[in-house]
UniProtKB/TrEMBL annotation:
First and last residue of the signal peptide: none
Protein name in the entry: Probable nicotinate-nucleotide adenylyltransferase
Keywords: ATP-binding, NAD, Nucleotide-binding, Nucleotidyltransferase, Pyridine nucleotide biosynthesis, Transferase
Family: Belongs to the NadD family.
SUPFAM superfamilies registered for this protein in UniProt: Nucleotidylyl transferase
Amino acid sequence: MTEPATLQALFGGTFDPVHYGHLRPVETLAARLGLQKITLLPNNVPPHRPQPEASPAQRVKMLSLAIANNSLFDIDQRELQRQTPSWTIDTLIELRRERGEQQPLGFIIGQDSLLTLHKWHRWQELLDYCHLLVCKRPGYAENMATPEQQHWLDTHRTEDISRLHHFPAGSVFLADTLLLPISATEIRQRRRAGLSCDGMLPEAVINWINQQNLYPAQK
Ligand code: ATP
């Protein structure tokens, strides 16, 4: 009999641009859970929502610079190749089909995303396809906004790491990850104001942003 495969992790985001608030917490999560690989899934933003400033190709380029020489990460561009809005549920259904019914899958989100999860397309089905691995994010409430949402969380929450590795889906794990008060919005605003973003994202990404004159200062 073959051993059940261990947890494979996926991390979706706009990454406009990728920053240490994305990378560092998930690195600590990987160490805690024994993750071998985290697949970054840059997303397509639906046409009715404010569009990222960087193009899909630029966002992918920044991701590749950020993870160069770091074998923990790889990039899956499937959502950018779709013509339709990138609903996470559709990606998870596709990944589940590809990786098999028994493969444990973990979808990583920050605490802010957990608090608004009920607004995601078909959110109640997400746990049919994956576990949710939640990273802390400073400035966001610890509790869900309504008793119903809190009940949902309490029902699915686990602190048992072996469940994540031995069941294909179904649990929410609130991880004790590094708290980094960084957001892509703040980085774009600082660039616009001509302020330094040193230490907020990898130097190679900053250099490339400068070369491309992305998020330019406004006079
Ligand atoms: P923006 O400011 O443009 O909304 P963002 O910095 O929140 O962007 P996203 O690409 O939207 O970055 O985030 C992708 C995922 O990373 C989300 O699940 C989000 O919760 C998580 N995330 C982003 N920044 C942090 C952070 N500093 N700490 C923990 N999680 C984070």
